Amino acid sequence: MRPFAYQRPGDVAGAVAMLAQAPNGTFLAGGTNLVDLMRLGVATPDVLVDVRRLTSDRIQELPDGGLRVGAAVPNSELAADQRVRRRYPVLSQALLGGASGQLRNLATTGGNLLQRTRCVYFQNLTTPCNKRQPGLGCSALEGYHRELAVLGWSEACVATHPSDMAVAMAALDAVVHTLGPDGQRTIPLSELHRLPGDAPERDTVLEHGELITAVDLPPLPLAANSRYRKVRDRASYAFALVSVAAALQVTDGQVRDVRLALGGMAHKPWRATTAEQALRGAPATADSFRAAADAELAVARPLPGNAFKVPLARNVIASTLLELTEAAP
Amino acid sequence: MIGAASTHGFLDRRTTWGHPLAWPLVVPDLAAGRKGGVDWSGRLVAAAFAPEGNWIVDVEIRLRVDGTQHRLVVDTRTTLLDALRERLGITSAKKGCDHGQCGACTILLDGRRANSCLALAVAHQDTDIVTAAGLADGQELHPLQRAFIDHDAFQCGYCTPGQLCSAVGMLQEAQAGWPSAVSRDLDADEVVLEEAEIAERMSGNLCRCAAYANIVPAIREVAGR
After folding, report:
1. How many domains, chain A?
2. What pLDDT score does A49 carry?
3. B143-223 shares the fold of B2-134
């Protein structure tokens, strides 16, 4: 591991100011992804600014009926929060489907969002990777495809963002609050992460030294009828091959409103807006669910080793929406 | 390079500034910024300062482990697991994968189970750390330790300290009503720790001897009390 200086400033503003002075430094929260990448030699910061005790670790009610989740709230506490379980069950389920009990205790809300989009070649210093070192080439395209993207990838990078939590938050129209050298701003969660394009080294739109301070979950009554379905190679403690976060409101057999996002499919949590548009006003039937999924997946470009993801996603979208139709109040 | 990374636990035991050539050290004006000192045990402590100041790589920290306070100087790269095992001689937490995947290093941080291989020692100075060695009350074994013996819940025993700490934390989580990925009713106030619940909640602890068939009943017995 490259030597680094460890800093624990007194407050959030101090942390932002400190990192602005350290072009090769980074923020440290729970460390479950960053420390691992540092030990692998993939991440080589020379300064760590510890923000775990600086940002809020509380979940607060917002005046509009939403919730504000502090960036330091552990994944385990967010999953267990009674309000989240009742109002946004898709988020609890997504969190509980991710990592292990030990990791969920360490991992924070902000850190979960900023875990690296990655694949096995990114994590292996012996295999070229454009994300690790731009211009080196992509080993994954001609390699092991099983966990790679089928949507929105580029010749430069075909890795997937592994967060479950972020997929649920994308479906819930969550909003990210940040503080950076240029002040505060808010970013819709579905616009926080990037598609790789020709700059796969950038996972998010955040500038250097910009810190996530909180995530807002807006009031969304239909989210009370929501679900996270994750398909993976083993029953627990594995990344998604395909995951679906869905919330559904059905009136008189018709889809009144819907939220849909996909995990394991792209370089970022994939908000399925094409499918959502196709679904609004459509009959709540297996046929229209499959048709909406097909519309979303029409732009999929599967590789030989992950072509299974397209029909898998189609089937999981349809079955999840059917389950929500049956569960609808 | 990955091989070099995996040996860093040994390199961390150096007492003066020195890094293997495989790891280029970029410290601006090192000679001008270098400063030496003597730590509590009389060993030389190396420190380096970046131009903006305060770039300290070896730092003196306090750790409270199993009820005992320790003061030691560590390289900032030292994980909690390496600090416990290599510096303090507390070898209860085990090094398995060293990447957060096997759970052999599981300890309790302020009562919550966590992987000590992914936690930096400098970041957990104000934390109450408990290893499996600190679970017993004097000569009286923790109920989970007793149950693991009664149920023959291990073969080689290497994963056992991590399994025990994880089970202690898991039972507290269940007691607090935390649901799991297999909970049928996400909104239930009370958690019933049936076999599937225990298996899911303990999925962060691998057992290469596959003693799961006895680990789950051992935990279930204590959960039922």
Report:
1. 2
2. 97
3. no
Residues in chain B closer than 8 A to A35 (CB atoms): 79, 118-120
Question: Which B residues, 133 through 162, put their C-beta within 8 Å of a C-beta on chain A?
Answer: none
Task: Return the CATH number at A24.
Answer: 3.30.43.10
Structural fold of domain B2-134: Ubiquitin-like (UB roll) (3.10.20)
Closest-CA residue of chain A to B114: A102
ipTM of the complex: 0.96
For B2-58, what is each residue's pLDDT tens digit? 333 333 333 332 222 333 322 223 333 333 333 333 333 323 334 444 445 445 589
Considering chain A, what percentage of its residues have pLDDT values greater than 70?
A: 100
Fill in the DSSP letter of residue B29.
Answer: T
The pLDDT tens digits of the residues spanning B86-104 come to 999 999 999 999 999 999 9
Q: Provide φ and ψ at A279, rounded to 5°.
A: -85, -35
Separation of alpha carbons A209 and A153, rounded Å: 27
Subunit contact B204:A126, Cβ cutoff 8 A:
no
The C-alpha angle B70, B117, A210, rounded to 5 degrees, equals: 100
Q: Which two tokens stand for residue A328?
A: 């609808």
Homologous superfamily of the B143-223 domain (CATH) = [2Fe-2S]-binding domain (1.10.150.120)
- Structure pTM? 0.91
Backbone phi, psi, residue A254, to 5°: -115, 150
Chain B stretch 59-118, residues whose beta carbon is closer than 8 A to a beta carbon of chain A: 59, 75-77, 79, 98-100, 103, 106, 109, 112-115, 118
**A178 Cβ under 8 Å from any chain B Cβ:** no
Q: Quote the domain boundaries for residue A35.
A: 5-50
Return the bridge partners of B52, or none: none
